[in-house]
Fold this protein.
Amino acid sequence: MTRVELDNANFIVRRLYGLPQIHKNALMHRYKRFSNHIEANLYLLRTTTAISKVLGHSSNRMSCVSVDDRDFKAMSKHHARQCLKISSRDNSQSLFKTYSAILRYVTCYQIKQHPLTDTVLNNLENDCLTDEEYSKVMGVIRRACDESWWKPKLRRLHNRQIETISRLLNQVNKHRGIYASNITVENFMSQWKSSRELLENTLATNELDYSVSLAELSDLNVSNPKIRKAELMVRIRGFEDYATKHGYSAVFLTMTTPSKYHRCFAKSGAENPKWQGATPLDAQDYLNLTFQRIRASLNRDKITPFGFRVAEPHHDGTPHWHLLLFVENEQQQQLVETFQEYCLQEDGDEQGAKERRFKVEYIDPNKGSATGYIAKYVAKGVDGEGIDHDLYGTESVTAATRIRVWASCWGIRQFQQIGGVGVTPWRELRRLSKITDESLEWVEEIRQAADDSDWGRYTELMGGVFCKRDDQLIRLLYQYKKQSNIRFDNQNFGNPYVDTKGVGHQPTFCSFSAAGKNAGDATNAAGISTQSISGNPEIIRDSNSGIFGNSRNQAEARNYKSNRYGDEFVVQLKGIVALGFEIVTRVHEWTLSYSQANGKIELNRSNLEFCQ
């Protein structure tokens, strides 16, 4: 081996050190295609430098990258200990310096800290925090000192780094790994399997000694793909029925991103020279921002469409949107023109933009239903049932799995309702049996519509698609969770934990007596009110209300359970409010326990144990 060959070999080893084998193979496959070793080495240097930036390294040196699951528990404990050391220096530095040091440490590892408002930050810097603002700042510090706060964030970051590197090496396309890389799909399949085992081994027991596994409960709600898809289709069909009754026309729109957001070409899978390193999140942000501008323009023109939006990936993971919208006949053309204008604002003159960036289909009810246009996109994004193959020829179930992995990895919301009434009151009403009180016949009518899966009638009875949330006839009932004791000292933020073990909760409600369906079975045990509970509740209707304001003193605030970080009170969904009349749909208190391989049942313990 000549000196030049030896230097090249050593250079390659140094640049590839720490990368997973599949990424090494992809780099070397491209490296060997260069006829000149200088060009090949420059390519390797540029690519590995880009990978270093993805990993958050400030230098060009590669460090160890693992494609397998890291020991996130050990990493989380390490970071929590380091932040605990920083926070323990409170006697020698101001709270502002402690917060700033924690923020720098967290940001260094590409983790976003819990946000604070500009007012709180200004008061922190000027040392004039109120009690509530002080709790907010302390909550940020306590989060950084909590390993359970770090663990999911590190796992999410790891998954996105691996997927970003895979896209950088052009491993995400219909020829290699459609929608998501094979590595990421395998990792998520393993995580889902572990999560399912945890649910199956965790029991929920209420005060009536009724026990059921969390897996069984999960299968009864929208966590179950079949139920999720069924509910989505019911709501979409309900919107179509409502639109038909009131004379609205339907239009099916498709929005996609400029070429620079796409990693590779659809047919050949070859690298797109216009791509500038954008991730699917960058593309999703572009679509969100464009849609915000469109809605603002429509609002100015007093055009208020309603319907559903579906986000799905191209073969390389770049998202695009499908929208089924219902609008007044005379406003339909202006709506389409507004969409077209804003979709072509960025790079609208590039080749193929007018043909691909925005597409519209006017739906003729005489030729087919509006729901049929979007049904296949819903099925493809949930379980693939009912279709054979996707657009690229991939088997439907496999495609659906990979799309779910793609959405989970990047945190992209697949389905979103546009306009209309809320779905959570609908779900709460379906937990109730027939209401026999004659004074609440109108509530029973709405409940019956929900129970019959008639979303169109439910929408109409609730006030219509354009009724504001605050004006809808039925709203949600939230309550602060009470507790008998709070083992927490706001003055000692060296110990960031709230001890809630053994704390009893006895909330009281002012409610209407509503019998549950099939009393005694799993549905009833899941929290349907079967008796009237009286008392003077602390009712709230905003789950983000946070700490009490000046109207309540500190002693009264201690009667309520705060979260583990002490900056917000724990809020529970308890039922619904019908024109001021409260109906409790969730009355049971549940205790979680887990079963081990030896068959023993042990109480779940809080993972917020103090770092010794």
Notes: The chain has a mean pLDDT of 83. The radius of gyration is 27 Å. The first helix runs from residue 3 to 16. The longest strand covers residues 319-328.
